[in-house]
Amino acid sequence: MKKKISSSHIVNKYPHLIRKWAIDENLSMQECSDKIVKHTGQDCTHYIMRTVFDKLMISKDRREKREEIKRAKDMIIEEEEPLEEEEYQIPIEDLIQQRIDATQRKIRKFGKTHFRTVKLPAEPIGIIIFGDPHVDSEACDWYLLHHHVKLCQQTEGVLAVSVGDQLDSWIGRLGKEYSKASILASDGWRLTEWLFKSLQWLCIIGGNHDLWNDANGFSPIKYVTEHCGVRFYAPDELKINIEWQKRPDLEDINLYFRHFFKGNSFYHSTHAANKESIWDGKANLLAAGHIHNWGYLMTEMRHGRISHAISVKGYKSVDGYAKSKGFNIQEHGSACFAVIDPFADEPARIKIFWDVEDGCNYLSYIRNKRTKKKAEQ
């Protein structure tokens, strides 16, 4: 004769199993008793299972579940009548005010993005202007780029500018170019971050390759510049007016940086920048990249303003695109170094060096000379 199982034992050891059979599968007391017998090998009477049902409040739960199912079946769903289209429309005066506010926000943001005034200590400074780095490209001359960064780190008073195309950032049909790369795209961003953290940047301009990554409302290159503490970033162009702290008698310096200026000429790579200098009527130094050619044109404009129009080549030492199109591939001019001496008279206020080391040495010389002169006074 089988040993009987107690109701307390079932409640303590098999409550979830009993609830599953009784509530989820809707089995009767007798059916639950039969299942316990098969499951445990012990005898279970109808009376024992009734006691189990009472202790676990199975009957109450089964009744509530039946009522819930009934309510779900009886539920009437009413559909609201669709509103007429005109009921969704914003009143025309409110709509006009929204557009006025949006335009004013855009204008304020545009001015802040593309026009800046900075105040610097009244002393000679150096500005290294990097041509297109393309740091993730197989053709990037990393030895030269690294050498230029180290020279600037070792020289006091140097600010950096990049005129765009920090990475290749291939997209669309150009994505096949990644097959020629020996590093991951993520490594390209790490190299960019290293470059941005290595120097004190006056500004970084977004090039066409950089802007390819932009999504609606988000710019990865802008995000990285902010993350790395770069003060000024602008897509396409930025005009910077330099004022000298506590020296209103010293003339301001106006800088104009773009990824490229429109109006290139076969005869000189700085033709577009020089033309812009004529129309701009204010800039002392204009610089751009993009075309992977370098050049320099210093011109005395009307009324005595001297402009320095510069095109920097960038760091691509091998350019398959240029070769396929028959463009001239140059060896020099990856970056240039501008020394600005606010105390010098024209035409010596701005000096351009195409050897970055020479520029750093000259900057250190005139800064030391200025410091010595101040000490003697």
What are the defining features of this structure?
single chain; 377 residues; alpha/beta; six-stranded mixed beta sheet; 12 strands; 18% strand; elongated
Could you characterize the architecture of this molecule?
The protein has 377 residues and is of the alpha/beta class. The protein is 41% helix and 18% strand. The protein has 13 helices and 12 strands. The protein starts with 6 loop residues before the first helix and ends with a helix.
Largest sheet, if any? 6 strands, mixed
What overall form do the CA principal axes indicate? elongated
Overall structural class, as computed from helix and strand content, comes to alpha/beta
- The first-to-last residue Cα distance is 119 Å
Q: What is the residue-averaged pLDDT?
A: 84
Query: Strand order of the main beta sheet, please?
Result: 1-6-7-8-10-9
Radius of gyration over all CA atoms, rounded: 37 Å
Q: What's the helical proportion of residues? A: 40-55%
Specify the number of helices: 13
Unreliable segments of 5+ consecutive residues: none
Number of strands: 12
Order of helices and strands: HHHHHHEEHEHEHHEEEHEEEHEEH
Strand content range: 15-25%
